[in-house]
Design a protein that fits this description.
The protein is built from five helices and five strands. The chain is α/β, with parallel strands linked by helices and 167 residues long. Bound molecules: 4-nitrophenyl phosphate (4NP).
Length: 167
Amino acid sequence: MPRVLFVCLGNICRSPTAEAVFRQRAQMRNFSVHNNPNPRRPDELYIDSCGTGDWHIGKAPDARALSAAQRRGYDMSSLRARQVNADDFFRFDFLLAMDNANLRDLEAMRPQGSTATVQLFLDFHPETKEVPDPYYGGADGFSHVLDLIEVASDRLLDTLSDCGAQQ
Ligand code: 4NP
């Protein structure tokens, strides 16, 4: 089972939402999800999120993201923002970027020797390629982010199931 890292800019809106939604939907489908990456447990999913920027390190998710998620039954109140670092390219199998700018930033900092797959999360969405940044918009933006993330999460879980990974 892969270790999956969701990456956005601030780690207070999109990627913590992806972390919480993906974790909950994985658990609903009876995937084993563990909370500690060490020691590595190949039969279990490990899920985390981070930002490329450093402005919000240590902060809880944006209040608008928290309430939009809560309205759909996702709890991300315990999550705290952190910044991506070079070790992440070795600790995770998939680094899934929310938009093309996040993807470019990740590709620019990938250390030599990392074999992690770095791609857009919405490669797992049938129509849309980027999760738009909701930070400067209204509440609608947060609901749209959830719509996109729910679909991509289910597709990614389908892919993992097809690989025979489900418990
Ligand atoms: P996120 O949203 O990348 O989805 O967490 C943002 C949060 C904060 C900022 C930009 C985007 N900011 O500029 O502070």
